[in-house]
Amino acid sequence: MKSSGQPEARALEDEAERVECGDDNFPQDPKGSRIFEAEVWDDLLLSLIRVEATLAVSAKLEQLKLL
Questions:
Q1: How many whole angstroms separate alpha carbon 10 and alpha carbon 8?
Q2: Positive or negative CA dihedral for 53, 59, 65, 67?
Q3: C-alpha closest to that of 23 among 35, 15, 31, 11
Q4: If phi over 0 gives left and psi between -120 and 50 gives alpha, with beta otherwise, what is residue 28?
Q5: How does residue 6 score in pLDDT terms, banded at 50, 70 and 90?
Q6: Contact 50, 62 (CB under 8 A)
Q7: Calpha distance 63→10 (Å, rounded)
């Protein structure tokens, strides 16, 4: 599964290979993979907050229907 020269795809493949191999000395993305990783975590956390809020509103609406 090699990319067709796209830098982002190659960086993701490199990161996946590093994780699979467990090699902490694998070369890091010079463009700042840690910044990219932080942005991904931020997006995931925001998505989780949205899901929790949606579930809370849904539960409240369901509760109101039962009254």
A1: 5
A2: negative
A3: 15
A4: beta
A5: confident
A6: no
A7: 49
Q: According to DSSP H, which parts of 1-67 are helical? A: 7-21, 33-66
What pTM value is reported for the model? 0.45
- Specify the amino acid at residue 28: Q
- What token pair was written down for 44? 């995931």
Q: Which helix (H) or strand (E) holds 16?
A: helix 7-21
| CB proximity list for 11: less than 8 A, separation 6 or greater | 29, 31, 33, 36
Query: What value does the mean pLDDT take over residues 26-53?
Result: 81
Distances in Å between the Cα of 36 and the Cα atoms of 4, 24, 41 are: 21, 18, 9
Question: Which residues, including other chains, have CB under 8 Å from residue 33's CB and lie 6 or more apart?
Answer: 11, 15
